[in-house]
Amino acid sequence: MSIFDALWLICGLCLFLYGMNVMGDALKKSAGNKLKIILGNLTSNPFKGFLLGLGVTAIIQSSSATTVMVVGFVNSGTMLLSQAVGVIMGANVGTAVTSWLTALAGVEGGEGVTDIVTWFKPSSWMPILALIGLGLTMFAKRSRNRDIGTILLGFAVLMVGMDIMEEAVGGLRDSESFRSILVMFKNPLLGVIAGLVLTAVVQSSSASVGILQALTVTGAISVGAAIPIIMGQNIGTCVTALISSIGANKNGKRAALIHLYFNVIGVAVCLTAFSIVNAIVNFAFVDMAVNMWGVAAIHTIFKIICVIVISPFSKYLEKLACISVKVGAEENETANLLDERLLSTPSVAVARCNEVADKMAEVSCEALLGSVELLYSYDEKKAQYIRKLEDKVDKYEDSLGSYLVKLSAVVNNESETKDVTRLLHTIGDFERISDHAVNFVETAEEINDKKLVFSDYANTEIATLRAAVTEILGLAKSAFINNDIDTAKKVEPLEEVIDDLRDEIKLNHIIRVQKNECTIEHGFVLSDILTNFERVADHCSNIAGCVIEISHNTLEMHRYTSSVKSSGEEFDKATREYAKKYSLKKFE
Fold first, then answer.
1. Which fold does the domain 453-588 belong to in CATH?
2. Which terminal residue of the chain has fewer beta carbons within 10 Å of its beta carbon, N or C?
């Protein structure tokens, strides 16, 4: 093998890795919402978790990528550690799909009737595939079709790289030196180490298996040498997940270790069992030359056996990981809300952001409603709890804001872009609602400290306004969480009624002051209450308006408000109904 053959081998490997990366990215992008739905149906059922891992890995063509994703899910709290075990097992089997695709390069043609087999060889149909892919990429108008074109081009580049590697190592067929090196790999331990190191270097078991498949064209690799190398490759693929777990929380690290332990135990059990049985039976096929299909078969059979052997003990695998990473000091609850590992799969990252934003909305609304109760019955412990909720909302906003900015740079379709834009424009409103909750707490403290007592009229008016704000808050939260446009349209008419209620209550208070039924001091506190209620309603209006405008691909909030108020009978009817529902008793 000359220096030029070595260079061509490197060139083939580069094309192989690049094609795999392009194809995997396009597959993830094309999967988009489907991948998000699949991952949204996570379950503690190990079998369903196994199918999930297998399916996702078959889609994105990389067990390392799936496992890194799992580390991110566990780290951010989206997935339980117990759920991760089944998914990781499925990911290990799913990666075998690539070896069967690359084995197509080993299809041989013949003469006469067997010429039809030639059409199954990639070199026969790959140019057609590449041409179709190029056409779709350059001329297709729909992004989905362009993604399909990219997938085809990526696969074509991958297979061209495979062919180049085959040709580059073809000269080793008759090399005695090469054969003598491979004889060493019949030693199981050396074979495992070789496979481990190769995979750790290229950061992909699919790529290292592809290299092994390319080397089989020399005819110098036996089944006995291939088995330990393939097993070592499965351990080497754990390096990527282990590296990604650096900086993760304890459960994130445990997820990466489960991946490692699964493969190490699988290799130890399978290789030991095979060596013992072979020593007794002396399998004839061990010394036979292995081909590409044989490598794919060994790769797949090994992974399936590992799952069959280890799955009954999955709970112990989880316990082993927990023992390895012991429980330390409690971590900040919001420190790992959003994991940057998920940014490599934007659709999943967007789904996670929606989950966190929904939690933020729930906490913000809980804080507001809880704080209003303090106006009637002050409780110091509850006041402190409201402040903690507000602090939690602040941390949600900080985490989400920073993460969404990074995510906006990698989102790759219109639906995801809308989601990111909607979240960026609404989390600030939910944060401000929690700020108003603290304002209510401070007002409640003032009422309690000064022993202020409002008149029955004033209490009735505040209760009416409170009920209206509670409803508008519920509508805005529901519209946001469910992305419900119909619910969002109910917000603006109620916001209009709340503004009128505020003005009417202010006027009534002035009349009561003139009749010496209320004091100026009561007026200051009442003004604070009315202002905070009105501002909360404004933020609810902003949230609902954003939901509606994003659906129209705009963010012109002033235009939205004007158009809603001038929309005629529908808006007027809703306003009249709310005005009737929240009417005040006539003050005399």
1. Methane Monooxygenase Hydroxylase; Chain G, domain 1 (1.20.58)
2. C
